[in-house]
Amino acid sequence: MTIDVGLVGFGFAGRVFHAPIVSAVPGLRLRAIVQRSGDDAKAVYPEAAIVKSIEELLAIEDIRLIVIATPNQSHYGLAKQCLLAGKDVVVDKPFTTTYQEALDLIELAKQHRHLLTVYQNLRSNGDFRTIRKLVEAQRL
């Protein structure tokens, strides 16, 4: 089974982290990218549709998962819009800019029975693992 993925944002995070990872994971297919200005995403990912808005992306029915890689202040609104459109969502960190926004999205995902998570790419870094070990050993 292949999961079609839509990527919102082709700035640094979308270009360097999200698009390459989605493209490399078996079972995921980068189906479309929202790139509001420019068209360099098409040169790197010719198999993906390049759209100019979240509305165009959400109109592609085959897309099941949306990855949000946009400026921090837009995460809440975009994630909410995607959840309401029936999509599962991965949000780049920070998840939201307020605690209340985070609670609202979690509740919305539960109500609509959709997956919602934060992209945590640093969990396998050495410094993170070291801190985890120190906390678990009650040395920190």
Task: Describe what is shown at a glance.
By secondary structure, this protein is an alpha/beta fold. It has helices at residues 12-24, 40-44, 54-58, 75-84, 99-112, 126-136, and strands at residues 3-8, 28-34, 49-51, 63-68, 88-91, 116-118.
Q: Mean pLDDT, rounded to whole units? A: 92
Biggest sheet: strands, sense, closure?
6 strands, parallel
Rg (CA only)? 16 Å
Give the overall shape.
globular
Unreliable spans are: none
Q: What is the number of independent domains?
A: 1
Distance between the termini: 43 Å
Counting DSSP E segments of at least 2 residues, the number of strands comes to 6
- Secondary structure category: alpha/beta
Across the major sheet, the strand order is 3-2-1-4-5-6
Residue share in β-strands: 15-25%
- CATH fold title: Rossmann fold
CATH first level: which class? Alpha Beta
CATH architecture: 3-Layer(aba) Sandwich
- The H-and-E topology, N to C, reads as EHEHEHEHEHEH
Question: How would you explain this protein's 3D organization?
Answer:
The chain is an alpha/beta fold and 140 residues long. It has six helices and six strands. The radius of gyration is 16 Å and the shape is globular. The model has no long low-confidence stretch (mean pLDDT 92).
Write the layout of secondary structure elements.
Blueprint: E1 3-8, H1 12-24, E2 28-34, H2 40-44, E3 49-51, H3 54-58, E4 63-68, H4 75-84, E5 88-91, H5 99-112, E6 116-118, H6 126-136
Parallel strand pairs: 1-2, 1-4, 2-3, 4-5, 5-6
Helix pairs in contact: 4-5
